[in-house]
Amino acid sequence: MLDYSSLLLAAALSGTCLSITMFAIWFTAPQARFVLTVACGILVLVAHVVLFWHYARHPSPWLCQIVLALLSLGFLTLCLSAMQYLGVRDYRRAILPTVAAMAVCAGATSLGLDGVGFIVTYATVTALLSLIGVMFWIKGGHDRRILLVVSFLSGVCAMSFVLCGAVLLVEGQWVLGVAPDNWAERLNSVVAVACMTGLGALTLSLHHLQAQIELKAETMTDPLTGLMNRRALTAFYGERVFGPFMSVAMFDLDHFKKTNDVFGHPVGDQVLRRFAAVIRKYARTGVDAFRLGGEEFVLVMSRMTEEKAYDIASKISVAFGTEVVATQLGPLRSTVSGGIGFGGTGGTSLDHVLAEADAALYAAKRAGRNRVVAQKTSKADAPALRSA
């Protein structure tokens, strides 16, 4: 027969080690805030286990309320850490019901119905664990194998709390006076230790996975404008075949070197960010924006006719012409030239389409700048674009 006190102490020891590990990870990577939240949640659960062990030896109504409150608070904190990791910002849908359940529990135990308090708390924890499992299964967009295990462990742990509450409910134990001690409680202690250990290990895996994703995003993002860079363009489209409904628009800011020489590089950087903001407005599904470097930008357009692609590129140029940057020398307006290359019926490579767009861009510059040229559609003589 398993010794109940030993199970509780094992759970406390396991939780303490996990919490210390999580805090150590967070100290080395402060940006991983969800790890800190996990550590705090586990620490709250450790406090619950220790006080529950003390409550089992010396029952007290006030201690009972604290024990149950810590159990709900600990799993609420773990649920919030899952929301942090998955980017779910609506914390209220977890916090408000949990606080309401804690209030009901406190009211029941203050009336002497501590058994009802335990049932309500077990139901609350079950709901929180179920929410964690569902969120990871639905919202997770990374390694589905890890997310499946997280959902499974959360579900198993939730079922162990369901059994604890079911035993009290079936036996009609509305008033206990002491800590519940039955087969379900003992099973819950074993399952909780195993699941918490597993979830702790998975937290490390998720942290490592998130770090890899963030590093990859950094290497593919232009730090000045926030747009994707040349590496991203090659990664996403380097192996793609450009068909007749795919095109590439290449943009080059007019007289940008002069802007830097006259107004200074800080103003030049501001102009680049302004153009990035304009081009980003047209980035959507099937339209991706990149900064190749310097004053060169690229827009890749998919599932779009040649006329529509030319229209979008022209609108970007016109919109940028309306942008005004305040400088010490007075307001600054800039223009941009663009060239468009198109995919072919038989399929064309990225390099070929870029070369065509580059040739069209130089045609726009030779024609006087501040215009978009689509070489394939014989628009090399396109007029200068009028700004509003």
From TrEMBL:
Pfam families: GGDEF (PF00990)
SMART domains the record matches: GGDEF
CDD domains registered for this protein in UniProt: GGDEF (cd01949)
UniProt-recorded Gene Ontology molecular function terms: diguanylate cyclase activity
Known EC number: 2.7.7.65
Domain of life: Bacteria
Membrane as UniProt keyword: yes
Stretches assigned to the GGDEF domain: 244-377
GO biological process: cell adhesion involved in single-species biofilm formation; negative regulation of bacterial-type flagellum-dependent cell motility
SUPFAM superfamilies: Nucleotide cyclase
Protein name, UniProt field: diguanylate cyclase
Taxonomic source organism: Mesorhizobium temperatum
